[in-house]
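Listing 4. Sequential folding, example run.
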Amino acid sequence: MRKKLLFVIPSLTAGGAERSLINLLAILDFKRYEVDLFMFNHEGLFMELIPEDVHVLPLPENYSHFVMPIRSAVSKFLLDKNAMLAFNRIMFSYKNRASNNVSIGEQKSWKYMASSIGKMDKKYDVAIAFLEKTSIYFCTEKVEASKKIGWVHNDYDKLGMDPDFDLDYFQKLDHIVTVSEECGHILKRRFPNQNNKVEVIHNIVSPKVIKQLSEKGSHDVFGRKEKETVILSIGRLNTQKGFELAIEACGIMKVWGIPFQWNIIGEGEERQNLLELIDAAGLEQHVKLLGLKSNPYPYIKQADIYAQTSRFEGKAIAIDEAKILNKPILITNFSTARDQLEDGVEGLIVDMNAEAIAHGIARLIQNQSLSKQMSEHLSQLQLGTEEEINKLYSLLG
């Protein structure tokens, strides 16, 4: 008899955790497992990539009303004579807006959202919250399962969360999975009494699939000009990814007279701010926000350099993908950087400021023998991580 698994994630919009889940589900053994997927939002770039063996659960009716615009939601609940949900919808909005930190807002508002979601009817062998915060809170409070696993995809200390709040939930988990050794060390330091639960499972990436998908863009996806170096970054447009540092670095490189274009794939709340920075620096011809791309691999393949200017990361899946496509890489020196890249061999790790980023990019452009050496080194490595699925199987039991 197949074991019943439930995966929980907020949505399948573009992002590293979302891409990682799709990769995991693509190689999961469905002969051994019956899989349900619960999401809080059924829109997203990767919805079309969900394997047909996965059953996507419908949204609870009250929750569907709860996430409507606040006026519509409150009106609906009052019309249905449900004053408590109307009040909770107002408090949910207030707690999110009143918090300076998005993660704290998500923690403080959870109980109000939770009131719109009843406990799940089906019992599972294993419930897997595939992202920190809401997914974990949902799994621990709303799901009946013999075993519960929570995933943390980032450097926990950099998320700005209240660890005392999370401790109550972590104590109810059987395993806490994270994506790199350094992230594991951070969790063990932050939650010493949960040490025995922490496991490291690296993001699953498949070189075969990535290389196949990279061939689908036969035309020039960048509209490259003569002698122009193309730099690519992928990530959500938020403060974590540090794209304003990239824009500032572009201003420096423009002054130096380097012909380049820097393209960013992603979407998020910082889009307007980034556009204003680009405009103020006169960089419209140099920096392009490309939005979301369901298949980013032709862009990685055709780029000359992959760059990640993040303030913090767990383990950025895009860096692993750029390595598979043999790109010279530049990343900032976030806490888990050396878990991802061998400095000077696979790419460059630079200080987290615009001048260091500009100097690093210029070095990769001007020292072609170094860039070629990095690419050739990457081409010799065995970079697939499909075997990481076996670590998950051992946890599922």
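-- end of first protein; second protein begins --
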Amino acid sequence: MTAVREAKASAPDAGDRTAPRPGTAAAGHRPRVVGGRVVRTRSGALSLRVRGRAVAVTAALLVALVAVAGTTLTTGDFDLSVGEVLQALTGNGNGLADFVVNTLRMPRLVTALCVGAALAVSGAILQSITGNPLGSPDIIGFTNGSAVGALVVIVVLHGSMTQIAVGALVGGLATALAVHLLMIGRGIQGFRLVVVGIGVSALLLAVNSYLITRATFQEALEAQAWLIGSLGNRLWTHAQAIGLAVAVLLPLALLLSRRLSMVEMGDTTATALGVDVSRTRTILLVISVALAAFATAVTGPIWFVALAAPQVARRLTGSSGPALLPSALMGAVMLALSDLAVQRLFAPALLPVGTATGCVGGLYLIWLLVTESRKSRA
């Protein structure tokens, strides 16, 4: 690696009409000059901007992630020491500790971490390409679309876990296509997409209700329980499914994060910098929908993680870009912590994690709407 040197990022051209306007910029931030250090390879083919604040926040989130995971694995109805957990994870634990850790707690924890990361990155991408802090898959309707696809498989086709995942993916992609067709010729920036998405989401919610009314009593109970969003009774098959999706899609999103940052500057500026705006948006939209769809297929709809996690991560890091990696860690911590809270604070009641994220997320949404309303008046 060559010597590390200072690099300054130029702000968007003031004359670029497609640049985000104050009050509508992604994550609610005004475009600003960003400092940092850039590390390059000798050939110059690869470079990485390193910002002290972002590194510190990422490290803190990793520490929080380890703390939440450790608490989840060691506490509960059957308390374990850290040593017993480590022995169980390495295959050297006794039978009871091995069952508690590897069969009951670890699959649920891995599922929570992967689903939280998937939802957060999905929301971060949508908020960035729409230039709107309300642009998340549960607000725009992609989550409800995935739920429709999954419910069709559950209620009508009586499918397996794999078929439910495929149904959720198809439902999410079909919803994204419908929203895109409704937005043709009008662009996908600003509150217009949010309004169209809310309308589509309401329609899909009605479809979900109709499917439940057409189901048998037992199927309706199962479907309604799934629609709340839960991490209970999650096995390694669920963890492996969402883990594989995150392992494939998250690196693709990170590779495109630099182009995503350029797209935030506006179409004209991004095109001048050599970015194929239309193609970049399409690929990132597919990645976002796929992440939300796979997460929904595994746990059911878990609301507001995709909305809140990217916002919190972006504000903590002070980043002018999408901050995908901190967003992923923030989403993983938020969902794992929420699941830990409903398990420990409300025991022996078995509350789904969707109730916790719904309550906290609803308060956050109210705060966000009030904040954006004040900005628009200013």
